[in-house]
Design goal:
The chain is 45% helix and 15% strand. The chain is an alpha+beta fold. The termini are far apart. It comes from Marivivens niveibacter.
Amino acid sequence: MTQAERSLQLTNALRDAGVRITRQRAALLEVLSVADDHPDAIELHRRAEIASPGISLSTVYRTLTALEEQGVIHRHQFEGASARFEHANADHHDHMIDVETGEVVEFCSERIEKLQAELAKELGYEIVHHRMELYVRKTQN
C-alpha cells in the first residue's frame, strides 16, 4: 500500500468513526501513514508536533484509539514498554524486541509458521490467530 493510500485509509477510518479531521489530526495521520517503525504515542506526538505545533497528546491518544477501534492500526504492548503502533494492513509477521535498545524488528519465518501449525495439529487444534514476540539482545562477537 502506498503512503497516499494509507493516508486515505486512515482518514476514511476516522470519518467512519465520526471523528472530525482537524489540522492536528491530519498531521498525525500523515505521520502515521509514513511510519515504517513501531512508534509509541509520545514519538508520534513528537513527529506530528513538527508539522502541526500545538497538537495535544490527548488528541494523539484519542485518535489512535479511534483508529484501533476501526481496525486500521494495531496496538502492541511489548513487555516493559509503552504501547507501540503499526499499520494493520501489513502481511503477517512476528517481532523481535531488543531488550537493550527497545528496537522492534519484524521477521517472517516459514519454518516457524509450519512448525506452529504442526504442533497445534498434533495436539488436536488449528491456529486461529497468533503472535510471536522474541525478546533479544545483540550478540558480542
